Protein: Nucleoside diphosphate kinase
Organism: Sphaeroforma arctica JP610
Amino acid sequence: MERTFIAIKPDGVARGLVAKIIKRFEQRGYKLVALKMVKPSDAHLREHYADLAGKGFFNGLIEYMKSGPIVAMVWAGENACAGGRMLLGETNPQSSLPGSIRGDYSLTIGRNICHGSDSVESAEKEIALWFGKDEICDWELPVHSLLYE
Ligand code: DAT
Ligand code: MG
């Protein structure tokens, strides 16, 4: 089953959106397989966002991501990476439709409250960066047979 790394950024946590964001993934049918609250180090965040090093907003992004605890999660399910990105909305909340998390709860690209892996390849890289193997829970979703044919 495909897995994606989803994180509630410091602004999402501080604004009390943790339960609301989790609820959207639960109600869609994805299976939660890992979750923790963390204050990642500068080096960890620079590795997570390594593709963006050199962008003008990079240092600001790292400072924002260090401004408070993050809720890091792994969700599994059919097409979890693309589907998760649809639940989040566009990178820029101004382009995110109402009904998406960013479209409902945020206004600006630099405070867009959540992260989601953009491909299966980055998901597996991000999951390995944020979680140890022993932190991932292998379990059967009781409603599995009602969600999949
Ligand atoms: P996403 O988080 O949708 O995968 P991304 O990987 O391109 O988007 O960028 C990572 C984060 O960096 C994004 O969520 C918010 C921030 N960011 C991206 N582009 C930005 C910009 N032009 N100005 C300020 N922050 C930006
Ligand atoms: Mg990205």
Remarks:
- The chain has a mean pLDDT of 98.
- The first strand starts at residue 3 and ends at 8.
- The CA atoms of residues 52 and 69 lie 21 Å apart.
- The pocket of magnesium ion (ligand 2) is lined by residues 118 (CB under 6 Å).
